[in-house]
Amino acid sequence: MHSSLKLPMALFLACSLFHHGIIAELICEDLPTELCALSIASSGKRCVLETYIDGASSKRYTCKTSEVVAEKLSGYIENDQCVDACGLDRESVGISSDAFLNLGFPSSLCSPECYDNCPNIVDLYYNLAAGEGVFLPEMCAKQKRSLHRGMYGILSNGDAAVAGSIAPAPL
Known about the structure:
The protein is an alpha+beta fold. The protein is built from seven helices and four strands, in the order H-H-E-E-E-E-H-H-H-H-H. It has one domain (26-155). The strands form two sheets. It has a two-stranded antiparallel ribbon with strand order 1-4. It has a two-stranded antiparallel ribbon with strand order 2-3. The protein is globular.
């Protein structure tokens, strides 16, 4: 292909892909249920997995658009690495702060793998925590300090003094 045609062809291809991206909207109700939880519609509203009973009295799932607005993202489906790193489950029904009641969840959410790499999940739980009167960055800082104190105690076989305390004098 002649070099003078390469640039216009590349520009045409890039524009057509960009145009296609604008037309294709992410609509929660169109998502398969296994991708619903932790996704965000093009409108910026979060998708939520809901249950319903069909005519045969069996429980089924459906993906719906919630009224919860994501602060920074739209048209986004969370990746499996973040779901795993943050200790979440795509089969979670609804959006609530109940996850904070699970003892292992705060440490997963506050882990560097989740907190530093999964802004969608952190944004969601930041807002849920705020609704409960908890400031997520402060909670994660306490979680980190607690982990360090615990590791310090394990590594020292419990013989070392906890930071800030006075060790008894040897006999």
